[in-house]
Amino acid sequence: MNATVLSCFSGLGGLDLGLEAAGFETVGCLEIDAAARVAMALNRPSWQLLEPSNVVAAGKILRPSDLGLEKGDLTLLAGGPPCQPFSKAAQWAAPKQGVRDERGQTTAGMLDLIEHFLPRAVLIENVSGYLSGRNNAAPLIEQRFKEINATHGTAYNLSSWVVNAADYGVPQYRRRAVVIAFRDGSELPGTLPTTHADKHATAWDAIGGVMPSNPPKATGKYSDLLPSIPEGGNYQYLTARGAGSEHEVFGYRTRFWSFLLKLSKSQPAWTLPASPGPSTGPFHWENRPLTGTERLLLQGFPAEWKLTGNERVDARLAGNATPPPLAESMGRLILAMLEDPSRVPHADTIRPVLAVQQRDAAPPPPHPAAPLPLRWRAVVGSKEPHPGPGQGPGGHAPTDFEPTDSEVQVEAT
Questions:
Q1: Is the pTM above the cut of 0.70?
Q2: Which of 52, 54, 173, 244 has the fewest CB atoms found within 10 Å of its own CB?
Q3: Which residues contact residue 245 at a Cβ distance below 8 angstroms, ignoring those fewer than 6 apart?
Q4: Reported confidence tier of residue 102, pLDDT bands at 50, 70, 90
Q5: Could you give the residue ranges of the DSSP H alpha helices within 46-105?
């Protein structure tokens, strides 16, 4: 039998697509979002969309025999539970957080499925706060693994890392937590090999040749400031520590990092948000929002992958997706370990074929920042910086690497 995977929280299919490229056959997908189910049916009609589609409900009734399997036959159970309860924003919120959040209970549903199927391996992908910070999911997962092991004689053992998707051929800075556990207790190294850390694919590599017929236009109160910010920069360029007092429209660190954030042709994209406000980047270097297709390409999806055609829905689906090249690398790592647990996987073993192709020629030079629009010159003047000593909502100069979780990229008030 081929290596098989049951996919939970399948979303747009990025996790499944990557695992498919690694050599897995998807035997079923659990996804409650109607738009995501439509998109998956458009792109991979062979993937079986299971009912009940809710992972918590499926955890109560779905059994291996429903998929033509015996208990223990499934190679991999994989998924990315809803990430909002574990985001940086959620760590500041009250009263519900982490696994106590209604959405956080979906992790328990996934663990129920693990107990019913007893797969040879488990893969969970999520935001970096999934396994750290207040009310993270690690204690729940570890406790359930102990209970499953005691009941069924298995040896599941949580191994986890925080990785940057750009290190695996994705043209986007995106920090993700990766959890892998093997039924036989096989252990992975403390540091995972990377495949593209020495040379990242850039935004230009992914979308430099894309010319949408009807590109979206920037809207909102601050949209006319975008041309006055250089590529790769954000609102901090228009502070005393950016272009200087002659362009001081905002106080330093008084907005979220994603506020008026623009792509640089020569770097990977900043983390894509799932629910961007009108001033939430990253914006295209042409001073406009990204199209749905561009968002997918920056996530590492193939150009032919289809979306719904609804701009807001497509932004959400793309922003919540697992980057397929990252999923492929993790899938190749899992298969290598299942084949020979004693052999430590290396970069060549897990190199993804879905990695975005890097162009030989350098991108065109950046467009120079435009002068401030006339109406904004009237507000130029000394502004108070954020008073706190910490990082605030973003915290570094525009040229620094500040990859934040996609759901944190909300417009500051």
A1: yes
A2: 244
A3: 380, 382
A4: low
A5: 55-61, 88-92
